[in-house]
Protein: Phytoene dehydrogenase
Amino acid sequence: MAEKTVVIGAGFSGLATSALLAHKGHQVTLLEKNDSTGGRAREWKSGGFTFDMGPSWYLMPEVFDAFFEYLGKRREDYFSLHQLSTYYKVFFEKADAVTITGDLDETKKLFDSFEPMAGLRLQKYLDQAEYKYDVAMKEFLYREYRSIFQFFNRRIIREGLKLNIFTNMDSFVKNYFQDLRARQILEYAMVFLGTGPKDAPALYSIMSHVDLNLGVYYPEGGMAGAAAGFRRLAEDCGVRILTARSVTGYEYEKNRIAAVVCGDERYPADLVVNSADYHHAETDLLTREYRRYSPAYWKTRVVAPSMFIIYMGINRRLENMEHHNLYFAEDWDRHFDQIFKKPEWPSNPCFYLSCNSKTDTTSAPPGGENVFILVPVAPGLDDNDSQREVYAEEVLRHIEKVTGEDLHSDVAVRRIYSHRDFTADYNAYKGTALGLSHTLFQTAVFRPAHQSAKLRNLFYTGQFTHPGVGVPMTLISGQVVAEEIEKMLGKPLGV
Structure:
């Protein structure tokens, strides 16, 4: 008989895991607490504008395509992709803005303008990043780690220096470039991995290969459009998806979960996969005797940033902006310190600003602009109404000073989204937008486990688990946990 499998949370990882298990014959029910699927990749519509609420960068397209191929499907049957010609625009505090395009030779020339021979060094930097990326994809990401000895294996010991696992990102990049602009362009992605360049292992220089070599894409309908494609995939595989179902606990039977409880409703389960916030799932859903991680464990974790987001619909075009835009302060270490060392609302903050209406004209009314502003901020800050409005005004004045664009006029739509919203919508620990940071001791085997230690039929997937933060990583996490489930059941997963 088919396993009755209940998956909790319909973000990318929950949708992916559901599709995989249903494809292998499980009777899968997917429960989502919100009214729509997609998790953080939901959309919000207002006044003719359609906003991606969370992730907005589509990177590592081969991971998405490989996932569909794994199921005998074609990604293009579920959503289409457009490769951006201009990947992003970078504003600097004390230098002219630059654009990074799909033309690598032009990017090398740009680096040459920063410092002599920097273009040649950029190629060498990208070569080592590609090597590490290939090793990671083939040997480290698509596998489970149950002990420290599996992670620190012969390959790691033999080639650890080449993979730069024990060097921090900032020091590593300084071996190639002295110019601050070059270093910031190569290090900025660390914040989207939930950490700072001085704490991230230099292994993550692979991110430069991801954007400069593999390219930056935009899916039809935005990231919410991609998530909708994964929902259709799950449904095609036979998954029953139920929204507005907030899980409140479990029924237990002989150290197994017998049913998942949603208020007055119960869903019998042979297997349970949780893709919701790990801390919430352990602390709030499990009774004490079944928890693996103590309060002390969670207190000592380095939690990734939350995000102060402003969604804005503007009734005019923003001429100084590209689709993706970044601002780096001269002293960006101060911003990282205000996230990780002395938590407070950042002053002179680095920020990300998206105008996806530059690519997708359906996301805004004719002549209008869809604006998504994101400032990484420390988790756990007091996020009250007064603080929100004060900080939003600071951010908008800051953006005008940096970019020359006035975002106070012709505003049709405006909404603030931050800590308390991440907690309310996703049960996010300390209001984090990302989960746990990618420090060395929160990588691979050091991340929370995929399988419960005390309930044999309970598994976890998503951004808290290996391989970690980012949509492609959560898809891989889904594949890893599905493999582990099938091994436990004695049935190899694969097509």
